[in-house]
Amino acid sequence: MIQRRLQSLLCTCGLAASALIAAPALAATWLIQDVRVFDGEKMQEHRSVLVDGARIADDNFHGKAPAGATVIDGKGRTLLPGLIDAHVHAFRYFDLPLYFGVTTQIDMFTGVQAMQDVTAKMARGDNAGQADMYSAGTLATAPGGHGTEYGMVIPTLSKPEEAQAWVDARVAEGSYFIKIVMEQGHGFKSLDIATVKALIEAAHKRGKLAVVHISNLADARAALEAGADGLVHLFVGQSISKEDLDSFTQLAKIKKAFVIPTFSVMESIAGVRAADIIGDASFSSLLDKAQKQQLGAPYGANAKPELLAAPQAVTAALSKAGVPVLAGTDAGNSGTQYGISLHHELQALTQAGLTPLQALASATSAPAQAFKLPQRGRIVKGYKADLLLVDGDPSADITATRRIVDVWKDGVSVAPLRKQQMAAVAIEALPSAGQALPADGRISLFSKDQMGSPFGAGWMPSHDAFLGGKSSVDIKLVDNASGAAAQVNANVAAGFAYPWAGLAFMPGRQPMQAANLSSAKVLKFRVRGDGQQYSVAVMSGENRIPASLPFQAGTEWREVAMALADFKGVDTSTISMIGFNAGPKTGSYRFEIADVRLLAQ
């Protein structure tokens, strides 16, 4: 259930984009007066909370507001600790969670550099403009196991004797805890239980928590028996027997483990859309088009809500038995989105049997305690001033968490950033004719000196090496009867799950930035080559796995025409790349391409 889009993880555009966020104002002194306070465990009426700089100065303030303090009326409102999403894959949109009051994310698998960058910013106290992150970094999986299919070269292991060295390497990289994968089927290989147990013991030896990804009851039991501190998923199913339910619940309680059900992604697998948040216009006004696309596109093609019966029954039983249940979304996957999905998760947990207060704790104090997160998850003197102010009483109506008045991160109001995001989304929604196409449609302005283009970042080599693959490509400009052509000499090598090498056109102002090409209906180009089969790959929106159509490059020049509508799932208003690729079959390739056009008909 790790996000299929993780293959774009090492693209620097994610962190670069977050760096462009307008710098928030400096932390100041705030007094939220006469407000209902959920302190992370219980609700307190008629409290006043004083924030001084980045910390909570007093969680039960009495007296006159300090000189210079900004006073906020809390009547009819509830103040909560900043929310914590206990299961995400954070590789982009680092600011987005803040807009929805999620001030901390617990990451279950991301790039080491991304993890280290955010950790360094947190250590400097320089992370006010995005959510904090505590990450496992690289997950523990078998060669060919779940987590290796995204093309990133990651260290794997296959026997217990390798466990301690593997864990020590992750600790040296900065992993906050250790994430272990037990996943069989769908072509994946899984760690055996002896290796899982060795990894858990190795993590504990270094003072680190060990959590386990599972997708069925048998593996869930095995992980708990092996000493896992927590399970980071439950499992879908139409039913679970009373005997299995009671036995599993008792095991989790005896082992003092916590469980993160991740209903948001289980619903996506079951084909159930998060209609409540998708249909909330005030909430979705913070999501741009691509972000909305991801949220509204579950994995399952057909809705099968009956598959949620088993995890709902298990969650209810765990909560009743006192087993800590944490709110986590698995954001980064299709059918989910950072920040906003946690509010849906809270509702899903109440539908599974938690009270609203228990659900609020599952996204605040419970994950802070389970993962030993410092000074967060509670409204207590001296804790971080990560706060969420909402209208209404979420202990009576859990959806009140969505009526956001303000969010503070390290004592800084996020309101300016929220307004900035809403404005950007509103501008994006304005009617647009899209990118104007050249009169003749030609986007390949090739000459003997350069590969020019009429718009966008233009033409560039494309291959899998930046994702850890071993393919390579050499582009040369050569003459042909109608002018210059690009000669593509590709070597497609094993080393990436879907190896490729070729030539790509980037229509956005920057590489991999989306452009509105909705006025284009047909892609035409001339090609010749070595007789082998190639493909045109089109990437759009949040889909980091491109849609592809094949073409043959024979020894004589021929014209190829492809309707953009035939590229399944492509939104022509958000195209970020058009590639002409060799692969995935390994070997040497050569083709020439010229006169590439995007035509309105």
TrEMBL record:
Q: Key word Hydrolase present in the record? A: yes
Keywords attached to this Swiss-Prot or TrEMBL record, sorted alphabetically, are:
Hydrolase, Signal
Extract the InterPro entries matched here. Amidohydro-rel, Galactose-bd-like_sf, Metal-dep_hydrolase_composite, Metal_Hydrolase, Metallo-dep_Hydrolase, NADH-UbQ_OxRdtase-assoc_prot30
Q: Which organism is it from?
A: Pseudoduganella ginsengisoli
Question: In this entry, which stretches build a coiled coil?
Answer: none
Q: Which residues form the NADH:ubiquinone oxidoreductase intermediate-associated protein domain?
A: 458-569
Q: Which GO terms describe its molecular function?
A: hydrolase activity, acting on carbon-nitrogen (but not peptide) bonds
Question: Which range is the signal sequence, renumbered to this chain?
Answer: 1-27
Pfam families, alphabetized: Amidohydro_1 (PF01979), CIA30 (PF08547)
- Domain Amidohydrolase-related, first and last residues per copy: 78-412
- The molecule here is called Amidohydrolase family protein
